[in-house]
Amino acid sequence: MEELIEKLKKEVIQQLNLEDIKPEDIAADSPLFGEGLGLDSIDALELIVLLEKNYGLKIEDPKDGKKIFHSIQSMAEYITANQKA
Amino acid sequence: MSRRVFVTGLGILSSIGRNLPETLDSLLASRSGIGHLRHLETPLAHEFPFAEVRFSNNQLMEMAGLSPQEGHTRNALLGIIAAREAFHHAGLEKSGTGKTGFVSATTVGGMDMCEKYYTDFLTNDSRNIYIDVYDCADSTEKIADLLGIRDFITTLSTACSSAANAILLGARMIRTGQLDRVVAGGTESLTVFHINGFNALKILDKVPCRPFDAQRNGITLGEGAAYLVLESEESIRGGSRPLFAELTGYGNSCEAFHQTASSPDGTGAFLAMEKALRMSGLEPSGIHYINAHGTGTDNNDIAEGLAIERLFGSRIPPVSSTKPFTGHMTSAAGSAEAILSILCMEHRFLLPNLNFSTPMPELRFAPVTELCLDSEVEAVMSNSFGFGGNDTSLIFTRPS
Amino acid sequence: MFHSPAYINGTGLISPQETADPSRFLPQIREYTDDFLSCIDPDYKEYIPPLAARRISRLIKMGITSAFMALRDAGYHSSLSTELAEPKQPDAIITGTGLGSVEDTERILNGMSAGETLMNPTPFIQSTYNTISSQVAIQLRCHQYNSTYVHRIFSFETALLDALMQFKEGMAASALVGGIDEITVNHLAITRRAGHWKTGPVHNLSVLQSGTPGALAGEGAAYFLLENRVSPSTYARLLSIDTFYKPGTARQVQNHIREFLLASGFNESRPDAVILGLNGDSLWDPFYSQIAHNVFPGIPWLCYKHLCGEYYTSTGFALWLTANILKRQEVPPALLLNDIKPGRLETVLIYNQDRNINHSLILTGTA
User: Fold this and answer.
1) Cβ contact (<8 Å) for A46 and C118?
2) Do B5-236 and B249-397 have matching folds?
3) Contacts of A48 in chain B (CB under 8 A)
4) What is the CATH code of the structural domain delimited by C8-227?
5) Which of A45, A47, A52, A53 is the best mutation test for B, with the most CBs of B within 10 A?
6) Total structural domains in chain A?
7) C-chain residues within 8 Å CB-CB of A44?
8) C213-253 per-position pLDDT tens digit
9) Angle, helices A41-55/A2-15, rounded to nearest 10 degrees
10) DSSP symbols for A29-61
11) In this prediction, does ipTM exceed 0.85?
12) Interface test with A, best of C43, C45, C46, C55 (most A CBs within 10 A)
């Protein structure tokens, strides 16, 4: 899980072009949206693309994204639970 | 200085008809143009419904009287056919003196050819005739050339409000005395590019769109072209040509909230409608029908609905979105829906908001769901709200 | 044509020349030998906060930054950073762009060509032409009139025309008007096939004497804050705009220009200088020379595309030159085309055309 969390941090930074942010700046359980990093609805859509491209996991309804993308931790948990072996 | 602006010609080509009479037939029969893609090839063809014009490019070329060697984009073909209909509908082929302009709107331009031949563009010379047709201006110039309009031409792009803004600019050029008549509207063909784009935004509905419905889940993309002929009072004087409407109000505002979303209370929509109403001199009760932008997205329908409630208070006129008929024609929606609104006035009917079943809990009103013949329709409002927050509202009244 | 004065009270220009500092007027001329001229990018981080900038591609950064430069220049706010801005709002924001964000469009097309159906939303949003104008409005939180014109070399001119109309109609007292286009390696390669450009790298300062077909491509972002009143920051007065399409022969073009001048109040006289859109294309520059000989004898002819390259909204660069020339009464020698020395300049005309299809005229005078 730790490895996945570190990998995800780097991928999120790259996908969302968060130039000034380093992986160590993001706490695994800190909220990505609203407070915390302050991401918005377009970022959520970019993360949907990331999940599909990098992990083969499709999210049809952006509303489902709210829980999954709450934090890096919740993303890692979702991937671990749903990714085919 | 401010001259009155009249609508003397209409031309429309969409999934519900190749021309104005076919369009009217479809409306009276409550017949939607939404179905499956027959011409455009995309992996998403089976995932979503679309309102595609039922003719292939070859058929459109035949209808337009053109040859394949000329390298026309689908955009240009749709636009040529609709603009020509409007031009002849207004009898402009017989018009003598005065200055005529052409203001056209599009966003995809020649992307249908560009996306098909992009690899060729990069690697060989086999498709060079399509390189210069890529941009937005190409279809405008092709249409203008066929209609013989040279006094003034330009192209406008403000996403889903493009054609409404084209009408707005055309009207202002008449009011400021620069032109006597303007053919104004928009054209947009379906492309894999923007189908993928709207899908990336997750705002395409898997079933035909359901504007203002509590279960709505997004847009159904459509395509087509629609143009109006606008003329000054002097230009129509002494003639016996029918007048379809007078453009008595318009308003353009910017949501300035977010790149793809309206503010929750629909500030931009409210300001655009309010400006149009103020300019028309009408009281809110003077509007007898609103053709809403009503895309069927979560966001638009709430924002627009609340804005309508805020402006019209307790006397909300009949409202419907005609996007369940034509799909969302994006850059052509503003002029197509202006034409549908004018038809409501001409034929005294109210168009139904198809696919509606459950009212939105957030709104006090529900849209019109049945075709209402023999209605009093003296003034109509047509709304078009685009990505990036470009919001425009037009008011047409019965000509006196 | 439309004749309705408006004052140029603020400018912001990002270009291949040193134009970002409004206190200096072409302090030195940049030379390049290249396939195309690229803008000197300022450090966009100073202007746009990282969280906003993360999804804004280069063209839109150029647009937002040059728009804020113009607002600051006009005294609408004191800081350039959009983060700190609570600026006074213009009554209209109107933009012209011939091609929009080429970079974003290409990113998508490259993905599609590689067989991708899954598209990233960000480049799609940025690829829509009106994104520049609406991003400026979002940064300013400005709900006023907003529009975008996308017709080749008419794009910026129609934006200016719209603004002048707003003033005449009493719909606005101020307008932020811009012209912006970019060039990329891919786009150059593709349009080179269609014969637009030189076949290889050229030296910009000698491109107008090249004697070979094709132009030198360029790019730029220019915004102007126009108002219906003079202010301490006034550069010049925009007087009339005209765009004309497929006028016919060179003689018909000349007649059209003469009528424009007549309607603008020049009876027998001429403007004090003309800026011509020669771009080094040996197939079309003689067309300019012929027109200039017949319509503008005896006045200084200036040129500018050797400094910024050819792009659909290049008259934004020309208007920036005009505004500075009229305010400072200074004509950088690098602009001079003929041997006539400029004296006191009260009026300057910009004439641009594209293969005798699209033609534009912008007339500006001292305030």
Assistant:
1) no
2) yes
3) 202
4) 3.40.47.10
5) A45
6) 1
7) none
8) 999 999 999 999 999 999 999 999 999 999 999 999 999 99
9) 120
10) TS-SBSSTT-B-HHHHHHHHHHHHHHH------
11) yes
12) C55
